[in-house]
Recover the amino acids of this structure.
């Protein structure tokens, strides 16, 4: 059975970036593991009022559990590092913890944000760096036939409905997963993150009100490491090919 590991810094990142892919993997009988590195205690609270950041963190963790159930995620791991502070966390320590998770679970595929973090968020960038280090560390322990493929996930249309713009893409996209049948599941997972209504409305206006029409039919990836070797991403000349992770 194929196993896929997704590593993101905040609750809701999984639904924004990979919600359709996660649901598709679940329906295909594949196992998925989501590692959420922080609990999002410095995020917005939406329509809710909390008396502490700890209370917001607990609420966001429950929202994440709800989204994980919707998407059929097999394993959910909460690391509870400081939200907004991952750039100050020792990358070797975080990478070591992630490497241990890879060695223990032996995923065939590992996915995280690209070096620009999609939005330039320092937490996104720090998790990208630590996950890349972790994959290479795990290769030192695992037999060669258990080395995972390593992908970045991009959200090229994230800023389509935003007044501001994100950073220039750090890597070209090399493949896309068709999530046409899973757009509604992705929308349902996004709605599970009610405290993040501001962010969802920025990227996917209408989804919080039940209109999934703005959700595209594809999610986008870049293969950057396979068989223990880096893969230099090259932009496809004739359009982005459809792929499966």
């Amino acid at each position: 059975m194929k196993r896929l590991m997704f590593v993101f810094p905040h609750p809701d990142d999984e639904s924004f970036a990979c919600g359709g892919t996660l649901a598709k993997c679940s329906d295909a009988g594949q196992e998925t593991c989501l590692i959420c590195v922080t609990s999002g205690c410095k995020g917005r609270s939406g329509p809710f009022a909390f008396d502490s950041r700890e209370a917001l963190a607990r609420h966001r963790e429950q929202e994440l559990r709800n989204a994980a159930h919707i998407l059929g995620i097999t394993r959910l791991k909460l690391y509870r590092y400081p939200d907004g502070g991952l750039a100050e966390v020792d990358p070797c320590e975080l990478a070591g913890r992630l490497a241990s998770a890879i060695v223990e679970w032996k995923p065939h595929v590992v996915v995280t944000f690209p070096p620009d973090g999609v939005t330039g968020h320092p937490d996104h960038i720090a998790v990208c760096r630590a996950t890349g280090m972790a994959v290479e560390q795990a290769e030192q322990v695992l037999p060669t036939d258990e080395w995972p493929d390593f992908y970045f996930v991009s959200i090229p249309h994230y800023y389509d409905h935003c007044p501001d713009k994100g950073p220039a893409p750090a890597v070209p996209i090399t493949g896309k997963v068709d999530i046409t049948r899973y757009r509604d599941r992705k929308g349902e997972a996004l709605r599970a993150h009610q405290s993040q209504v501001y962010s969802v409305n920025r990227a996917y206006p209408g989804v919080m009100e039940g209109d999934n029409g703005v959700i595209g039919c594809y999610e986008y990836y870049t293969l950057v490491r396979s068989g223990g070797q880096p893969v230099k991403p090259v932009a496809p000349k004739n359009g982005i090919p459809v792929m499966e992770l």
Remarks:
- Residues 53-71 form the longest helix (19 residues).
- The first strand starts at residue 3 and ends at 8.
